[in-house]
Write a structure and sequence with these properties.
Helix 6 packs antiparallel against helix 8. The protein is an all-alpha fold and 245 residues long. The N and C termini lie far apart (56 Å). It has one domain. It contains nine helices and no strands. 25% of the residues are buried.
């Protein structure tokens, strides 16, 4: 059963269906309904991207050493928090990695909070969006490890500390690393989907005080999931760039 188009998705499908059709044909995806090529999750994801593209230039334009505003101070606290968390994850020089962790955290956060706005939905409640974030994290930490050690030395990490353990450790490490994107995807998708369903169920039952409680709980879950996702990315990068004694 096809999903009901949100009003913004309906606008995309009415005015610019050709872009979605071109992208799907380019990557070899079969278009089930050419009249509705845009899915809700894709349009909501683009909305989050657009918000972030507007947010960061505004922040940059307001940066001031002499007179920092509340907006700047909030993001400075956020940056310092990410920096300290990255150091605790075992990364001794966090600066090159902070932009990725920060972008990941903000994207997951805003995508989750979007579901609290009427007539919108959280794109992270669809498995495709968490899967994309998980794959990006997987590629990022492996590339960080290769850049830090070189390809040969990085691959030696999979062999374990002792040469005689290599036949056992290589399959275990290989499966463990391949399981990370799946784990990240299921964790974020399941929590966001469950939170969205619980919130909508109580909104359908009553429109008084009780839904506000669950909406507040949903906000807490969104913040928690964004933090956990970014924290796991930090841990994976920390393990990839670590120099064993």
């Amino acid at each position: 059963m096809p999903e009901h188009d949100l009003w913004l998705t309906a606008i995309f499908n009415h005015f610019i269906p050709g872009i979605a059709l071109w992208i799907q044909n380019m990557v070899g995806i079969k278009v089930e309904d050419p009249a509705h090529p845009w899915a809700n999750w894709a349009v909501m994801e683009l909305l989050v991207f657009a918000f972030m593209l507007v947010l960061f230039p505004i922040l940059r334009a307001r940066l001031s050493v002499e007179n920092p505003g509340v907006f700047q101070q909030t993001f400075e606290v956020f940056h310092q928090f990410l920096y300290s968390q990255t150091e605790e994850a075992g990364i001794h020089h966090p600066s090159p990695y902070i932009p990725f962790f920060g972008t990941l955290f903000i994207f997951v956060l805003f995508a989750g909070l979007l579901g609290l706005i009427p007539t919108f939905e959280a794109p992270t409640m669809r498995p495709m969006v968490p899967c994309g974030c998980a794959i990006a994290t997987f590629l990022f930490y492996n590339l960080a490890g290769v850049r830090e050690h070189g390809l040969g030395k990085y691959l030696l990490h999979f062999a374990g500390p002792m040469p005689w353990l290599a036949p056992l450790m290589i399959p275990i490490e290989f499966i463990s690393h391949l399981a990370r994107p799946l784990s990240l995807t299921i964790r974020l998708f399941a929590n966001m989907y469950a939170g969205e369903q619980v919130t909508m169920a109580f909104l359908g039952l009553t429109y008084f005080i009780l839904p506000a409680v669950f909406m507040g709980l949903h906000v807490f879950v969104v913040f928690l999931q964004a933090y956990i996702f970014a924290l796991l990315a930090m841990i994976y990068v920390g393990g990839a760039v670590a120099h064993p004694d």
